[in-house]
Structures
1.
Amino acid sequence: MLRFRPLLVELLTAVALIVAPFVLQPLGASPDTVNRVLVWGLFGLGFDLLFGFTGLLSFGQSAFFGTGGMIAAYLLTRMGFPSVIGALLIGMIAAAIVGYVIGLIALRRTGIYFAMITVAIAEVFYFVEFNPLADWTGGENGLPGVPMPHIVIGPIDLDFNGGWSLYQFFGICYFIGIVVALRIVRSPVGAIFRAIRDNPERAAAVGHNIHAYKLTAFVIAAAYAGFAGGLLGVLQSFMPPDAFTFATSGQLVMQTAIGGTGTLVGPLLGAATWLFLQDFLQSATPLGAAWKLVLGLIFVLLIIFLRRGIAGGLVDLWHLIRRPRMVATAPAVPKAETARVTPHRPPPNANKVAIETRALGKRYGGIVANEDINFVVHEGEIRGLIGPNGAGKSTFFKMLTGEVRPSSGQILMFGEDTTNLNVTAVCQKGVAKSYQINQLFTKLTARRNLMISALSRTRGPYRADLLRNVDHMDELNADVDETLRMLDLTARADIPVSQLAYGEKRRLEIGLALGTDPRILLLDEPLAGMSPQERADTVTLIKHLAIGRTLVVVEHDMDALFGMADRVTVLAQGKILTEGTPAEVQKSAAVQDAYLGGVHA
Amino acid sequence: MVNWANFLSQLFNGLVQGALLALISSGLTIIYGTLGVLNLAHGAMFMLGGYAGWVAFTYTGSFVIAVIVGTLFVMVVGVLTERGIIRFFYNRPAEDQILVTFGLGIVFVEAIRFLFGSQSESIPPPPFLAGITNLGFMVYPTYRLALFGIVVVALLVLYLVLYRTRLGMIVRAGIEDSTMVDLLGINVQRIFMLVFGIGAAAAGFAGIVNTPVVSLAPDVGEPILVQTFVVVVIGGVGSFPGAVIGGLIAGEIISITSMFNPGYAYVMLFVAMTLVLVLRPYGLLGTAGRE
């Protein structure tokens, strides 16, 4: 929805922000609560980019909320800083810098470790604020006397002095916040965030420096938190020390989940639900003391039954209503010519070596997976790699791509040593692999999947082009369209990958590797699980891919492999058993021994 | 100027707190290792143990009954939580598991606050463990001395359960390779329920035996949860010996730092955790692939 209707969300947000006071005021809502919702909504925008989009669940956001708030408040109350907006921005930048340093530590690990480390971070900041830094932060008293913003631009003199007047200032801040967040979401960086959330290993394998992108998300979230923290001080005319508590982080997590993660507006909806319900329960019901118990129960029930929260529920409802039309509109696209015609491929260039391994070996403790592998593939060649189960084909492939570090020996790609490079760096050198078991970005569409691959080719391992719109990158989109046509997926390009048929997923798996436009393409059992017709089509596709590229193919379907490979290498028990043209290998007694255990006629 | 008697008693405080953290962290780590669920309600389980024991104490006046009731109550809560909620999350993403246990923790804390209020409550140590003991080189509260013994015994019991029983063997096998245990035809459902119960009971037991030292309040579990996380990161997720060593390290860091300035206790904990993350990313006794 976000993608097809540009600026719709911006427009709706602007309208909602302008209309809100006229609707809420007669209903008796206090401007204080409404402003507080905006502060939490802004705080949550950054958190949603971090958790909803990048998949990093942090319980440490209070650290940045407090840091930004305290620095802004300190500038305004103790140092007589003249500009409220200036102080807010300085607080934001300070929070971002702190976020960068903390991110370096917290992002050393993923998953539950990341969650636990962020919990510890939140607690450390709380204690530091309370004790060692009490002289600056006011300790448990906080910093009173934070002024309201007063903006003078030429003849315009704007004085925001609390209540609905302050709402105008907060509304503008929130609007700018969501516009920036939407641009980030629509940028290449935003696309990669979602790829990392879906499948971090594959995002790294197609050439993205996922650590740098995660750190980017972390810093962005810290910046939003810092700015929101400053606004909290302005709202209350006082910077409260409890901004730093673990409970603040927890409330943010709960509000975002209630409103809906991965939606940007979710945190605002969640904050509205949380704060209005809190006001209501405290003032209008006998349950006053139990307001947090009620909200906690609502949160648990939503996690159990409606994981995507209020906004997610609304989006699902919308899709439910629209579904019949969407399915019917998929047009029948004629099969691409390439899928049928076997191409004329130039012969391999015997003078140029593409892949070379020298005495390559890998041990796991006492177990030898690969030993003394000397392997040379020439440019433009299709090399088949066969061997019985456990021969070490997968380990060998993983060493070539940098997924596994060799124990001994050397790998050269076009003469360049890649032995100690990681998977991202190897991919950037023009080496890509399609996996035996699909490693797709399952929540994204086929088009988006291929775009993630293509982005690493045009942008390198990392670039912070946060404000660029991927949909306006015409060359990139043309390339993706071309790849979709080649894979015969054009008609199915815009549905989530999880709904594709198995054969389509297998083609997309090859496409993900292809999308990085590699010079060397490694295919790990590309035909696994395919029907005879799909096999024939895929073999033709592979022959097309080999034009201008070097291919190494692991495959158990011998007929198909011998039909396409220029040469075949046989691995057995971790070593190279023999190597030759398909005809030579087929006749080799050693190969028959290895496969049939010597029982041949 | 360092006062040596004071230093020794702080060192011993660290040992007591460390043993307590070791016990609580063991509970967290065996649950994570076996079920793959990080229980953010673990701090609340600690708190529930204290309150259940306190209620039993106000009715019976017996500390021993309080300890038994507190432990069993949390075990039952653990089993019911696992059967009622957690088991529906085994196939959901780790984030969902974290969110739901976090929410449950809030619900437990707020339910207690609603029932008993926010004021702090306490239980006196049993009469035969009241007063102070002169150890020759220092005088030390008798109950704290006993607490160390009690917690060490509890850790030993946990050790025996983990390393000397069939259940323990399955739990340890499950930590190494849960898929394989599943394939061997072991009733994983029942094991999961038991492990969650035992892990929760470890926290609950720690919660009640700690009440004569630190008074009860609904949010008493929050700092415990944070410290437990640090212990597990230091020791390595899923490792029982790691939890014990991590617990003792964390306990000593907290009490020795507190001697100079309590405000820096968490900073030092965090520094220690960061050092471990940089030098041994999987924790002192952890191995890759357990997350």
Note: The two ends of chain B are 45 Å apart (CA to CA).
2.
Amino acid sequence: MDVNLIFKIAAIGIVVAVLNRVLNQSGREEMAMMTTLAGVVVVLMMIINLISNLFDSVRTMFHL
Amino acid sequence: MNNNFNISEVLDYLPKHIKTMVIRLSKESLQKIEEIRLRLAKPLCATGCCSEIFIGADGEAEPSGVNAYIINEDDLRYSMQLVCNFSMYSVEEELKNGFVTVNGGHRVGICGRAVIENGKVKTLKDISYMNFRVAKQIIGASDKVIGYIIRSPDSIYNTLIISPPQCGKTTLLRDVIRKLSSGGEEKLFRGMKVSLIDERSEVAACSLGIPRNEVGMRTDVLDGCPKAEGIIMMIRSMSPEIIATDEIGRLEDANAITDAVNAGVKVITTIHGSSIEDFLNKQSLNRIHKEIFERYVVLSRKNGAGTLETVLDGKFNILFERI
Amino acid sequence: MLLKGIGGLLVISASGILGILHSNKLSLRYKELVNLRRVMQMLETEVTYGATPLPVALYSVSKKTEGPVSRFLANVSEHLSKRSFYTLKEAWNDSAERLLMESSLIKADIEFIKSFGNILGCSDREDQKKHFQLFYIQLRHQEDSAMEEVKRSAEMYRSLGFLLGMAVFVVLA
């Protein structure tokens, strides 16, 4: 578990939030929505490995 | 200034490809050219004193015009752009009279469809015919006549030059002005102050204020101004001893000339006409009377442009007659 | 660690500067349109009052003004004097293409300027005056749309530059 990862995700969250506000304010709502989506996708991609490990651990733990 | 130089000034107002064609003509042909004509859908034509040549696409002089270069709409359009300096509005006054004077004093006749407003010609459109007249300055053109015009070392006779078109009256007028302004040995003439009202910019051919032709040391030029007003302006401001102007024809011009003479100023001017009788019959100038002018000079083309036919005095006695 | 920091700083500032430049282009476009109006008004005076032929008129107006539009007029004047093209329209269009590259004006502005070249110098003073008036009215529309763009997007591009830079930095580092 990398602490850096948490910081990264937090940073992305902040950036997406600010981008969202700026784009909304200048009327580009579609773009705002796209950036939010992009942010979610990026974060997901960053933690996809961890999620995969989580499911593996759960499986081994419950002998599924 | 020799003739070749003048021709190239006129050629600058033709589209490049046409200019190239004309330049390829022989030197003697070029020297003789007095007019270049562009006629829509007709051969490119150049006329001289007693000759006419049609010009082919490779600069060949075609006497019959069969293989000559045929003028198209674009040629006329490009030529108009050059002649009016890309600015139709700057020549709209001149266009109303059917011709534009370009750099060098050359007259370009323009013909097309007249646009009428309030019964008068407002402008021309659909230009289909253009006639480039090459202006020539001939130093010494007045040698034969000047003796009759000078009265004493400090005075001249009021002179009217009568001539049909294309007979060199402007050339003659120009040289007379030059001689009178500069002075000379004839009768120890001292040279007088001349005010030239050059309405069509043909006599002095001023370009940016500087006369392109020789008009003499003591000559003041008012360029592009209507004659009647110009004469009055010059009398009031330049204290001339001689007023010179070209082509009087209207009542206002005649009145202004009369005013000038009454103010004690001498006049030299020209008028269209083929003989002295022609002049006397001119209705609009009835006022100008036979009392104003003291010398009449009649020109023709019989021996080429500038042929001196007769010189008469104020009472119509013949002082000189061509045999 | 230090290298990361410097790299990140570079990315963020590069992106940020791009954003600022783009934002400036918008406000510059508006300024140039306003300048265009001023320049054309001077040209109108030369044409309709002075009846000055175009090569001289364009040159003298370009001497009294500055900016890309001023250079554009000087360019056209030079083409006309040198007789590089057969008609004003051709000279005008050629210089307009150059103006597109050298200024912050957009294609729509340039097309609009080009259309004026079709009628400049082709009719008498009264008619030219009318065309100038029409030009100003259309120019007003361009100016208004430019101003709107500025209000809407100028601030946005500035922030966008930095934010995207930060996003890239965060994701990659």
Note: DSSP finds two helices and no strands in chain A.
3.
Amino acid sequence: MLGSLIIVFREVIEAGLVVGIVLAATRGIAGRGWWVAGGVAAGVAGAAITAAFAGALSTAFSGNGQDIFSASILCLAVIMLSWHVIWMARHGRELALEMQKMGAAVSSGSRSLGAMATVVAVAVLREGMEVVLFLYGIAVSAHVGAFSLLSGGLLGVLGGAALSYALYRGLIIIPLRHLFAVTNILVSLLAAGMASQAAALLASDDLIPALGYDIWDTSWLLSDGSLAGRTAKALAGYTDRPTGVQILVWGLTLVCLLATERFVRTRPHPSPSP
Amino acid sequence: MKRLFAALPLLTGMCLFPPVQAQAQTVFHLTLKDHHFEPDHLSVPAGERFIIELENQDSTTDELESYDMKFEKIIVPGSKIRVHAGPLHPGHYTFFDDYHPDQAKGTVTAEAKP
């Protein structure tokens, strides 16, 4: 039971961190609960479908199918996260003002929700696929104790969900004036982390140059295998022994995103909407 | 348009440098049977990229993973996968089946060339 609890908990945390940040970043936008729930549902469905075709996916692209698929959906999530950051740069202030004035959710933000729902779906799909295959394997094997393993899995899901809710509650303690500034940084780090993970996957299959291996080794400090290391990876793309291309892509994504955000935010725009 | 700007680094990375030519890398063959790797130990040359090819003879879906060699790939029953690893510094490394981590474990020793 403990084994399945741990493996499921681990994957759910990784997706849950993304969901927690997305919930905080879309605070006050009317209907976001439905969009995020829809993203989770789409992710679960996608995970089940992908798991069913795991064999075909493995053999696709001369055996690199899994990595190319993961890298592609990560890139999609990076684009959606970027879209949100830049959208918030334009509308974040008016959104916060309106929320303070009305003390309620505002509908003007619904445009950004589709992008964030996509991000949630991608995060859930990636981690969910492993959980689905793992639990399916338990369910089909006539293994003694399958029930306890499955209940372990369920506890893992609940534990991971509780942690992402805690992250969300922790984030929304931040006063509204500063909340979106903080979530914008978190979302930018998520984007940089996902872009660098995509680069790592492609470099691992020798599809793009690695530009050097083991640029540094911080496994003594924070190991990729530890829960803290996995959390740092999910939040910001941490890895204990990065390749050159990972660092390059991480830095470029972050710099481009923050520079564009700043440019959009400080530029006076004559028409306040849409 | 601006969101494309944000995705630019990745695209630049992909386009600027053409894909690496597939050099002849040593392939090490492993099988997974009864949730054990066979062989469960590999000696590889340090400082070189190499490939581990795994054949799954079990009836369960497994996941070949290594933290210190940075690979992670799902393998369905009766199939073969390849993961790339290295270049490694001389030393000991571990890999395992993430779905049966207590049973299926293996080690890699990277040795410097004399």
Note: The beta strands of chain B are 26-33, 36-38, 41-45, 50-56, 62-66, 71-75, 80-85, 91-97, 105-111.
4.
Amino acid sequence: MSSDAAAATIDHHFDPTTSTGIPNKKILMWAFLASDCMFFGCLISTHLIYRLHPPPGTLPARQVFSIELTSFSTFILLMSSLMMALAVNAIQKGNLRSMRWSLLTTIFFGCIFLGCQVYEFRNFVYEKHLTITNSILGSTFFTLTGTHGLHVLVGVIWLSGMLLYSFTGRLTEKQAIDVESMGLYWHFVDIVWIVIFTAVYLLEYI
Amino acid sequence: MRIPDLPTRLARWAPAAAALAGSALLSGCFWLDGPQSTFDPNGPVAREQLDLFYVTCWVTLVIFVLVGSALAYAMIKFRARSDADLHAEPPEQHHGNPVVEVSLIAASVFSLVVIAIPTLRGVWFSYDVPEEEKADAYEVTATGYQWWFKFEYPNETAQTVDPTGKLVGAALTTGSELVIPAGRPVHINLRTVDVIHSFWIPKLAGKVDMVPNRGNFLWIRADKPGYFWGQCAEFCGESHALMRFRVIALGPREFNDWLNAQMAPARTVAAAAAGAGAGPKAQFAAYRKFRRNEPGYTDRFDVSPLDAWRAQQLPGGGEDPSMIAKGRELFVSKTCASCHTIRGVAGAVGIQGPELTHVGARTTIAGGLLENNRDELHRWIHAPNDVKPGNKMWVNGYLKNEIKLAPGDEDALIAFLESLK
Amino acid sequence: MEAVAKSDFLAKGESAAKPLVLWRPTAKTGLMSWLTTVDHKRIGFLYGISGLFFLIVGGIEALLIRVQLAVPNNTFLTSAQYSEMFTMHGTTMIFLVVMPIGAAFFNFVMPLQIGARDVAFPRLNAFSYWTFLVGAIIVNLGWFMKDGAPDAGWFGYAPLTTRTFSPTHAIDMWVMGLQLLGVASIAAALNFIVTIINLRAPGMTMMRLPVFTWMTLFTSFLIILSFPAITIALVELMMDRLFGTNFFEVSNGGLPILWQHLFWIFGHPEVYILILPAMGVISEILPTFSRKPLFGYPIVVFSGASIGLLGFGVWSHHMFTSGLGTVATAAFALMTMAIAVPTGVKIFNWIGTLWGGHLSMRTPMMFALGFLWMFMLGGFSGVMHAAAPADLQQHGSYFVVAHFHYVLIGGSLFALLAGIHYWFPLMFGRKVSEFWGKMSFWLVFVGFNATFFPMHFLGLEGMPRRTFTYDANMGWNLGNLISSVGAFILAIGIGVYLVTLVYTYYKGEPTSRDPWDARTLEWSLPNPVPEYNFRVIPTIHARDGWWYEKRHEQEVARESVEHAKAEDAHGGIHMPFQSVYPFLAGVGIFVGAIGTAVIDPADHSLYPGFWGPKIAVTIAGGAIMVVSVFLWALEGAEGTHIHLNEDGSVKGEDPHAGYAPRH
């Protein structure tokens, strides 16, 4: 069957070797993301529950947050999703060059986001005196956004690996699903950030 | 090959029959009115809960009989009786019967409704003192410690000195034995200072947890005066099994007398009060030796615990004032006082351990574990860790402060504690 | 295992040497073949052996508990030892016995039932097993260390598990081990989900799936959706313990009740993770030995789904005593009762399956019928718990202990023991002696009831669970004594069972294909099952595909000749290459976990700065894992094509590169 696959144009939405026609890797990624939703769900709930039951003397979150910076990094992350979508589209058309540029931009945007987060963390700890140990808010905030940051970092490493791999000549249109499932992951990380941004940051400004 | 003969078939079922008969027999043999039996409710909350339990029992029993008979019938009737049976044409390949399915589902839903209605009533009833009785409710706060319970009476103010030496009013406090008025609803606030505990007096009410940073409560009412066993029901560390307590319900007058006695500061024994005779009367030298985990009370105590409690309120004979006075000094000098409060003893203002102002009047010590008598007192203060592994008196007291008690010190302390009626 | 190794059909072919592949292991026998295997059947055996090993470990812990409680005021164990025993007994039996034995069946049976040659991601499957093993070792490491084994109960309620109250590494190991077991379970479950959705043979529509496969699917969904909750709870606890965060730090406003919610949001679905596979096994065995199809197949499947779904909405019934308030208590009580309906429906359908059948009372059937009775009793005491006010008396008492042992032994374990007997001929080509099989059943059955039936009464008489001793005047003496005697009968029963299995493995009577006249696809295979499973991927025409095949032999034979030709034209049977990287990733995780959980933080005067041994070992472990995963990715999902002779032996092999088509 694999020999056929190479022959004609490839339908990227149908894999004839599976029962459903959906590639295995795609189902795997969707199922994993469902699971990851629960991970973030629990962390976000923890944050919100403690937000409702703040111990006395809790620092008001508004005094800590810098909504301008975070809005900027949110926007950057959203844009990286756009570039990711372009990368998937490019590899599905077999356009390796275009895919590389899109991937590179995605990585670049991801790094900007991470940079903003590192800056934000340092700012919170050293200027605003919010640390992971000194308050519940610090514990939930750093754990939640840190877990998300870790996801972005894993994504950036994965994207970079794929970018390097594309230079070995082994990444072709046939392997578009590898880029696509990576894209699913990246979009998910982006969407989760939208939820976190709303639940953690914007909520404080309502 | 052959049809199994009757004995073989009987033999096959014999173990099942034996198991069933055995279980039935067993249930008859159990002593269902032990000190913590939920089958012997002494208050409305426990009674409501037991009634609901019986409802669930009857409903499930009926279902068990019906479904079990169907299952047993199927197992016997449709058993392949011979080898020929096994190799015969397979039976008709039925795939199901929607009518049967739907009616069985309906039947299960119905039987659950039978349970659900009293459940809902019980949820609200067990939760808090009924509205019409609220005015009459008595307020108590129970606090869990590793591994004993503290009881406070927020509406009864006793005079005590705070650590700075100032005379202040504070809620009457006692430990390990909760005395309540019988016939009145009692609203118990549940608090903890360390881990999660669970407050359970099986004969009065089901348990409610003491969770840190959470204001739980429970209500009980004892129908009549009585002496009830309680125990921590949530694993709380090494000596969880030994974290026990008692509830003593008293009639209105007796309860008032008790309150008045408790409000007084610690009893002092003047030389005159001790009666005639000089010199040490208490010769405690021969204490009983205990094995590890040996039960902490005598059979005599079991027979009529409420009477035992009443007897305990009165000073015993043969008190030795000089020894008691020595014990009182040792209580401070051996640093007992830094954890235990005794109202009336200067410096005894600690709050990590149970308050001991009237410890002599309690039936039990060591968190409801040991009967309050001379041997057990000695057993407890002589080697606390053998009685209650990991307990704070041992870890944070004896070990940290390197407390050594000479035999004479122990005698004096015991005499002192016994005098605190 | 030798049995599989004997079916060594692969000639030592030249494997495709590709530039990016550092090492392609090819061993088919010996230790290396097990460390690098990606064969779902072998991985199933690994799970099964581990599960049975830990059954013995957990069983010994249980016996020590029962010895201690046999008489009042016993001094056989100290209270500290006793706490370790019940904590590890619970943790072991749930995570290291019932789940892995369930996973063994998922691995071995499920792909065969849907007509697949392997799971969707064979190397991920191997990784799941190795991670599971690492987790199991880490949890048990405390036995061999001075810190001792974990001792805060299997649900480790904070704040007892925080550093203030449990300062030693015992809890660190418990936390780390459970997290790894969660990772392993989630990875395995993802694999099973993709496999069931995507690797079904032609004609195997969802509504033709064997019920065991359905239950595998539901269980897998429960795993991926519920394990995150406990993982996050454990992460928060670990952060508290390692980095001083405040999630459960009471003095800084932490709410220990949050632990309970997170734990039971996992914990209740976990109960169904333990029982749904058992229900699947029963739904296979009863039809086979009644020689009738399952009664009401769609309803059984649907009730499995609704049990799984409702299972996410009842967690707080584990917390009725924690002061939820009236409305929440009432809601959770009603939800819990609602779950009794689909559970009852299953029982009705199983009885319906027996009804009018030809019941052959073989050992697997005995265990299955035992399951029906015992699970029914466990269900009844479950309904009693659902009546929340009554549960205030039962919660945390021996009544609960009785209830969940009826569900987990009488339910899960009976079904798993039934399943082992049932599939043993398929796995090893030998049949268990009926006499010894039934003997073990009766010993287990009687011992089990003698152990746990009295506990109902003990609980209602006010005996709290997790107490290392009790006084003689409480009315608990007789019940405890009977229970302890029963425990030893149960242990002898399990002993007879295991010895019988081992004996049968070596000396048992060889069987032919399909000894039970079964109904599902796995029985169409010769035993032991060849590495490639199906000579030709079958086409399924009905539910109970093999039953249909046996009655339409000519039609099926014609079909399979055509399919064989088509498959050969496409290159033959695709087999994935073995890989060492899942194992190496597991080694990395092991090293990292030791660093995180076991090694003391650096004494900063000795190790100035950041690089204490704790950090160093953790990072080293992480690095090994990352490199392994990286090489794993580069190696690619490649495989080889094999061609078979008439008799099923291998004619030849084409090294084949490129992305693997599954069939």
Note: Chain C touches chain A through 48 residues (CB under 8 Å).
